[in-house]
Amino acid sequence: MLPNLHWMIIQLGPITIQVWGLFVALGIITGLAVARQFAQQRGLDSQLMVDLIFWSVLGGLVGGRIFFVVTEWSLFQGNLLDVVKIWQGGMSLSGGFIGAVVVAALYIKKKQLSFWPYVDTALYALPLGVGIGRLGCFFIFDHPGTVTDFFLGEVYYGDGLVRHNHGLYLVIDGLVLFGIFTLLRYKFKLSPPIYIVLYLIWEGVVRLWLDSFRILDSQWYGLRAAQWVGIIMIIIGVVVAVRTWRKRGRTDGLT
Q: How far is CA 56 from CA 92, 106, 232, in A?
C-alpha cells in the first residue's frame, strides 16, 4: 500500500506552481520534442509536426475538459465557476483524444498533408507525453477508484480509505506503451499506420478494463463513458488494420 502522496502545489516564494499543470506542461513539451525528432527521421516536415501537435493539444485540452464536465456534471452543477478551474485537475483522456483528433484532421486538411504519416508519428510520442502528464493526476489523486488491498493502492485524502489511484495506473500505461513503441521503432522498419493501430487497440482495451474500477463517471447501459469510447477505439483500430492489410495485399501489411 502506498502512503498518502497528495501533492497539489509547489511554493517558490511568492510563486505558486500547480503540480497538475506542471506535469501536463512537461508531458506536452517532452512529447512534442520526441515527435519532432521522429518526424525528421521519417522525412516529414518537423515544423508542420510541431504546429500540428500544438493545435491538437489545444483541441485535446478543450475536449478533455468538456468531456469530463459532461460526464461528471454532478461535481459542477452547484458551482459553475469550477468548470473553468482546470488547474484543479479534471480532464478526460477519452475526450481529449477526441478533441485532438478533430483538430488534427482539420489542420491536416487545411495544410493538405498526408494524414497517416503525420498522425502516426504524433501518436508514437503521445503515450510518453500522457505518461508524464498523468503524474500530475497521480499526485493530486483526482481519479479515485474503488477500495482495494492491491499493493499499489493509495490512502485517499478524501476519506482515508485505500483506493485505486487511476493517475498512477495511467502513468504506468503510458510509459509501458511508449517503451513498446520504442522497441518496435528500433527493432523493425515499420510504416504508418502501425502506431495508430496499436495505440487505438491498446488504449481501448486499457480504458475498457481500468474504468471498471472508477467510483466516478455516470454510466450508460452498464458502461462508463470512457469505456464506450474504448470500445469505439478498438473497433476503429481493427478496421484500420484490416483495411491496411487488404490495401497492401499481404499479411505483413503493417510492416
A: 15, 10, 20
pLDDT one-digit tens code per residue, 152-184: 999 998 888 999 999 999 999 999 999 999 999
Position 215 scores a pLDDT of 78
C-alpha cell of 189?
522498419
Taking the alpha carbons at both ends of the chain, their separation in whole angstroms is 42
Find how far residue 62's CA is from the centre of its chain: 13
- 191 CB burial (10 A radius; 0-12, 13-18, 19+): middle
What local confidence, expressed as pLDDT, does residue 217 receive?
58
Query: CA 29 from chain center: how many Å?
Result: 14
Name the CA radius of gyration of the chain, rounded. 19
Q: Where are the domains of the chain?
A: 9-196
Contact partners, residue 247, CB within 8 Å, separation at least 6: 253
DSSP category for residue 51: H
d(CA 176, CA 128): 9
* Cα–Cα distance for residue pair 141/133, rounded to 1 Å: 13
Q: Give Cα 154 distance to the centre of its chain.
A: 22
Place of cell 488504449: 203
Q: Decide if 136 contacts 20 (C-beta within 8 A).
A: yes
Q: How far apart are CA 190 and CA 213, in angstroms?
A: 35
- Angle at which helix 225-248 crosses helix 46-71, to 10 degrees, equals 150
Which parts of the chain sit beneath pLDDT 70? 87-89, 216-220, 249-255
Cβ contact 42:111 at 8 Å: no
The dihedrals phi and psi of 214, each to the nearest 5 degrees, come to: -80, 150
pLDDT for position 89? 64
